[in-house]
Amino acid sequence: MASHTPANDNIHAPAEQKHVTPVTIGVDLVLCAVFFFFMFGWVKGHVHSNDTKYIVFFGASTALCVTGVFWMAIQMFRVVVAGEKKLKAERATK
Predict the structure, then answer these.
(1) Residues near 47 by Cβ (< 8 Å), separated by ≥ 6?
(2) What is the pLDDT of residues 52-63, one digit of tens each?
(3) Using CA atoms, how far apart are residues 13 and 25, in angstroms rounded to an integer?
(4) Among 45, 69, 71, 70, which residue's Cα sits nearest to residue 58?
(5) In the chain, how many domains are there?
(6) Residue 6 located in a structural domain
(7) Which structural domain, as residue segments, surrounds residue 32?
(8) pLDDT over threshold 70, residue 5
């Protein structure tokens, strides 16, 4: 059984800058919406059906999945850029 020390309960991580703001959320939503409609327009031509309902359903569901991957890529890009900025600032102070 691990020992519990009350003295370590009040240790906080250093305060970091907030990376999620209403502006970044808005930018992400706009980018994802544009990407979704681009992918939907491209994918719907590849659906093997003549029924419009099926074309819209499978085109939209495929575009939605790819847009989710695009959103994750945006988030990972933001994390990498923030880490690079932090590393550059640390190197500049040394």
Answers:
(1) 54, 55, 58, 59
(2) 999 999 999 999
(3) 25
(4) 45
(5) 1
(6) no
(7) 20-93
(8) no
